[in-house]
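hi! just following up on the protien thing from before. the input was this:
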Amino acid sequence: MSDPIDDVLNDVDPDGDAGGGGGRRRTIVGVLVGVGVAAVIALLVVGLVNRGVGDRIDDALAAGERPDAPSVTLPLLVGHPDLGPEGTEVSLAQFEGQPVVVNFWASWCVPCRTEAPVLEGIWQDYKDRGVVVLGIDTQDLTDNAREFVDEVGMTYPTVRDGTDGTERDFEVTGVPETFLVDSDGRIALHFLGPVDDPAQITTALEQVL
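and the predicted 3d structure came back as:
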């Protein structure tokens, strides 16, 4: 793979400026300064985004409280036999009275791929007891996300967060992250990282059933 800076520098005409080598050096310096400014701007953007992530949910859980779950209304990524065709609006509120395992994921996320079978197992084991597993696809391309669903054999409902707004409301810092919402609509668990053991979710789940 070529280096983008090298590509730009190779395009500089050594005879294209009255100053000869001096003109070329000035052009090179200008290119490097521009690249440096772009890198600084990128770092500032990342810093602002991270600074905007709150910790209200985690603080409440650490204090032994169950904060209210943010409202969620998003379209189905793929059709689901219990909820309707692709694009049907699904809200967290419609599952009132049922525990909901909410999982944030993306198709490019390798740990998300490894945890998907674990979440599918939880769905299969608990759906007859009224538990819902709800996937929320975020920071993703729709076609890639649909391919992911097919490849991992995901049968629990999954919605698409095209603006990443729900991710911000849940104060998600990265994917994957999983939340357990109890039957009263309150968050009982926030699990960071991939779920590689069902007990990481089901221990708390049994307590809210």
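The CA atoms of residues 107 and 194 lie 14 Å apart.
Strands lie at 73-75, 89-91, 100-105, 132-138, 158-161, 177-181, 187-192.
cheers
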